[in-house]
Design goal:
By secondary structure, the protein is an alpha+beta fold. It folds into 2 domains: 214 residues, UDP-n-acetylglucosamine1-carboxyvinyl-transferase, Chain (Alpha-beta prism); 208 residues, UDP-n-acetylglucosamine1-carboxyvinyl-transferase, Chain (Alpha-beta prism). It is built from 14 helices and 23 strands. The strands form 6 sheets. It has a 4-stranded mixed sheet with strand order 21-22-1-23, covered by helices on one side. Strands 2-14-16-15 form a 4-stranded mixed sheet. A 4-stranded mixed sheet has the order 4-5-3-13, covered by helices on one side.
Length: 428
């Protein structure tokens, strides 16, 4: 276990390159098992979750060639030798459940431990189970999750109970090799879901409606190899832009798709932070109002999240930290996960003027002077938020369990140091 030692009070300044999208890299690596030919992925982030998934894939007998410095991975599943992979690895990664469809296709069965990952609230598998069952999969729930398709996969008309990102990706991977036609209604349409669909098309799948909430898939007999470049991670990039604003800095992120930031930019404007945009870059400059914009009709301003294209839940935590450093009062309403707000009590201990109303809502009034303290990172997004609070705080902070941040942010220490932060990694 390691920790991050932070001396706060320095504005973040500089330029960085956006990393590949974490939430695209994981399902794309799983999709590579759907063919016995090589699949080459570019712009793969070197983060903890990618490393764990590559361990799972390797444990299945699949050949993996990874060059972290060049951000490329080549996967060739000439044969898949195991249908049951190490439970300990599944317990470290929620995205491990995405191997169910590829294992079903390749070996007819998938046996796995319940997925792990961040504890941010109830994260049901109902949409996965209902979607796969509609395609002819038999699901047995117990200590292990067991998926079987004794009669093969067949197309179906599916309405997902929620617009789940991973369930949409799961059903999509199964449907492309099912007999007949599948329609997925209430599908998630985030940029990383679109990446999965586009890789599958590059591999020979027939998919219509990419980018919409209804996907139409015509099953094919086999898929072939392909090369694909993963899009940039808008949550990672927006995290650094929010932290730049919170510290009064000046940060430019290059290699982004500005159209992904429409709602993000609108939400930051509510806090008096304006994004400058170019063809492939975004900037938070140092001269920002940093004042909450009131509601036109009166009442307390509200920042809430939702499914794409609404404001992403993964950015709520870091935006709450930004709100502690701007003038005014705002209500945050986290609609998706009942434990996302739990970290706010640590901000209160650091000096933030905040009230946790219930598991889904918190009121933040700023600006607050934060002071350093010893903190424990509970998950990826709360971890980067607490790290941001430490960057704003007076004095020294120690953030333990830094590995939780590493799961979603590559070389976090090196990037922050390049932006002028006084941060170092130490033993926990």
């Amino acid at each position: 276990m390691t920790a991050l030692r932070v001396h706060g009070g320095r504005p973040l300044c500089g330029t960085l390159e956006a990393a590949g999208n974490k939430n695209a890299a994981l399902p794309l690596l799983a999709a590579a098992l759907l063919t016995d030919e090589p699949v080459r992925l570019e712009n793969v982030p070197d983060i903890g979750d990618v490393r764990v998934l590559l361990e799972l894939i390797t444990a299945a007998g699949v050949s993996v060639s990874w060059e972290p410095t060049r951000r490329t991975v080549e996967v060739q599943a000439r044969q898949v030798s195991s249908r049951e992979l190490p439970a300990a690895l599944y317990g470290r990664l929620r995205a491990g459940v995405l191997l169910a469809a590829p294992l079903l296709v390749r070996v007819g069965e998938a046996v796995m431990a319940p997925p792990g990952g961040d504890v941010i609230g109830r994260r049901r598998l109902d949409a996965h189970l209902e979607g796969l069952e509609a395609l002819g999969v038999q699901v047995d729930l117990g200590e292990r999750l067991r998926f079987r398709a004794p009669r093969g996969l067949r197309g179906a008309d599916i309405f997902l109970p929620e617009a789940s990102v991973t369930a949409t990706e799961q059903v999509l991977m199964a449907a492309v090799l099912a007999r007949g036609t599948t329609r997925i209604h209430n599908a998630a349409c985030e940029p990383h879901v679109q990446d999965v669909a586009r890789l599958l098309v590059a591999m020979g799948a027939r998919i219509e409606g990419i980018g919409s909430n209804t996907l139409a898939i015509t099953g094919v007999e086999r898929l072939h190899g392909a090369s694909y470049r993963i899009g940039s991670d808008f949550c990672e990039a927006a995290s650094f832009l929010a932290l730049a604003a919170a510290t009064g800095g000046d940060v430019t992120v290059r290699g982004v798709e500005p159209e992904h930031y429409r709602m993000i930019g609108r939400t930051l404007r509510r806090l008096g932070v304006v994004l400058e945009a170019g063809p492939d870059w975004l900037r938070v400059g140092p001269e920002q109002p940093r004042r909450v914009v009131p509601e036109r009709a009166g009442g307390m301003p509200v920042i809430d999240d939702g499914i794409w294209p609404q404001f992403p839940s993964d950015l709520m935590s870091v935006t709450i930290v930004l709100a502690t450093q701007v003038s005014g009062t705002v209500l945050f309403f986290e609609k998706l996960y009942e434990s996302r707000m739990a970290f706010v009590d640590r901000l209160v201990a650091m000096g933030a003027n905040a009230v946790i109303c219930d598991p889904h809502r918190a009121v933040i009034s700023g600006p607050s002077t934060l002071h350093g303290m010893v903190l424990q990172s509970p998950d990826i997004r709360a971890g980067i938020a607490l790290l941001g609070a430490a960057l704003c705080a007076r004095g020294e902070s120690l953030i333990r369990n830094a590995e939780s941040i590493d799961r979603g942010y590559a070389d976090i220490t090196g990037i922050l140091q390049s932006l002028g932060a006084d941060v170092e990694r130490t033993s926990g």
